[in-house]
Write a structure and sequence with these properties.
By secondary structure, the chain is mainly alpha-helical. The chain has five helices and no strands.
Length: 144
Amino acid sequence: MILFILAVAGSTLILTQSAICKSLREWLWAKSTVHGTIALTMAVAVPPGNTEHRQAHALLHYVFTVLAKLASCPMCSGFWLGIAWSLALEWPGLTPRAIAPLLAHGAAGSIVSAVGVALWLTLIEAQNVGAMWRYLNQPEGEDP
């Protein structure tokens, strides 16, 4: 269970908060915006006969928007990563009746991810407060 908690919290923090995945998150948002703009433009400018192109861009806009939101939301990604880690850690023991435990692991992953991100943000805020305290309490005339 500890391995599950560490895996879900760690992978969620890496996906939603880290600088490693920042370019992925930005790329997904950019792609969703591009395809949304194309789909909107095609809905207005393209004659009604060309629906395949319009539907393809609308679908791409939807997919990229969902992926961008998933990569930016700790609780959303925690749910799906909880299911993924549950499958990865317990694959040989899965039966067709394993839907309820998978959903339970997803919910647990969502909660663990929310707690992990809250702790992460609290630590960052504490570090910022400490730096401000040191800055405000330094003797006059010293450079920071």
